[in-house]
């Protein structure tokens, strides 16, 4: 479904991605784990077209999307949930969610999507008339995923959904990510919380200073000595 071939991304002279290869098959949850500054967010932003790579190719659903604009990539079904939640504080939760569907022309589809989001996150339904700015951190993360689902993704890119959240909230959100996957959406998950990410993923990549250093199924990565030492607390 998605293939990155030898992707290089730079910020000025700094090479943040130094030739990475990643592939994702339909139906998978794939995770990229790595420390601070490894290039995880850069990888997602490169895939979603927010930053353009200086070399390499990105193929999505058999199309070369390397040079596509970000909104065209969203319309194709590749949707990113950004790190930091970016909810409009002075619009209601309902209004904010509707904005997520701005590319979906079919009104019936929009209301179906809204129903699906409220089914996954009943808390958002309860709060639909509240202003975005009043949501707690966990609710904002739910909202961010919900808004991305409103644009009808085939592949969802998640950037650090566990960031700043209490463990119980993280568990809830990761369970919902699994539910979304079981309902047919393929997922690429970027996380510093390697344990949680590998516990729901099928496969994973380890990213270190802009290079993929390891690639395996999640079970093997969880029991890999290097991964345990570096990312799972020994
Ligand atoms: P974190 O979990 O801390 O967000 P990350 O793995 O997502 O880390 P990136 O944010 O992708 O890492 O950063 C990769 C490298 O690129 C880092 O060295 C970072 O300092 C650098 N970088 C990121 N954004 C910019 C930018 N806008 N301008 C210059 N350098 C940047």
Automatic annotation (TrEMBL):
InterPro entries: AAA+_ATPase (IPR003593), ABC_branched_ATPase_LivF/BraG (IPR030660), ABC_transporter-like_ATP-bd (IPR003439), ABC_transporter-like_CS (IPR017871), BCAA_Transport_ATP-bd_LivF (IPR052156), P-loop_NTPase (IPR027417). Signal peptide: none annotated. It comes from Calditerrivibrio nitroreducens (strain DSM 19672 / NBRC 101217 / Yu37-1). GO terms for biological process: L-amino acid transport. Residues 2-234 form the ABC transporter domain. GO terms for molecular function: ATP binding; ATP hydrolysis activity; branched-chain amino acid transmembrane transporter activity. Pfam families: ABC_tran. The keyword Transport applies. The lineage of its organism: Bacteria, Pseudomonadati, Deferribacterota, Deferribacteres, Deferribacterales. CDD domains: ABC_TM1139_LivF_branched. SMART domains: AAA. Belongs to the ABC transporter superfamily. It comes from the Bacteria. Keywords: Amino-acid transport, ATP-binding, Nucleotide-binding, Transport. This is Amino acid/amide ABC transporter ATP-binding protein 2, HAAT family.
């Amino acid at each position: 479904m998605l293939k990155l071939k030898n992707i290089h991304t730079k910020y000025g002279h700094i090479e943040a991605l130094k030739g990475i290869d990643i592939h994702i098959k339909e139906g998978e949850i794939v995770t990229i784990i790595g420390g601070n500054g490894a290039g995880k967010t850069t990888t997602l932003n490169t895939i979603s077209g927010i930053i353009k790579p200086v070399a390499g190719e990105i193929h999505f659903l058999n199309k070369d999307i390397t040079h596509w604009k970000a909104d065209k990539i969203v319309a194709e079904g590749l949707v990113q949930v950004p790190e930091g939640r970016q909810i409009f504080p002075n619009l209601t939760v309902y209004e904010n969610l509707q904005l997520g569907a701005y590319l979906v022309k079919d009104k019936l589809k929009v209301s179906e999507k809204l129903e699906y989001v409220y089914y996954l996150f009943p808390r958002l339904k309860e709060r639909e008339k509240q202003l975005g700015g009043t949501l707690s951190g966990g609710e904002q993360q739910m909202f961010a995923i919900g808004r991305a689902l409103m644009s009808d993704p085939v592949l969802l890119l998640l950037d650090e959904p566990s960031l700043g959240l209490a463990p119980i909230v993280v568990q809830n959100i990761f369970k919902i990510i699994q539910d979304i996957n079981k309902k047919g959406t393929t997922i690429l998950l970027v996380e510093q919380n390697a344990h949680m990410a590998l516990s729901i993923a099928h496969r994973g990549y380890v990213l270190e200073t802009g290079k993929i250093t390891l690639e395996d199924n999640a079970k093997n990565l969880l029991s890999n000595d290097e991964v345990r030492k570096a990312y799972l607390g020994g």
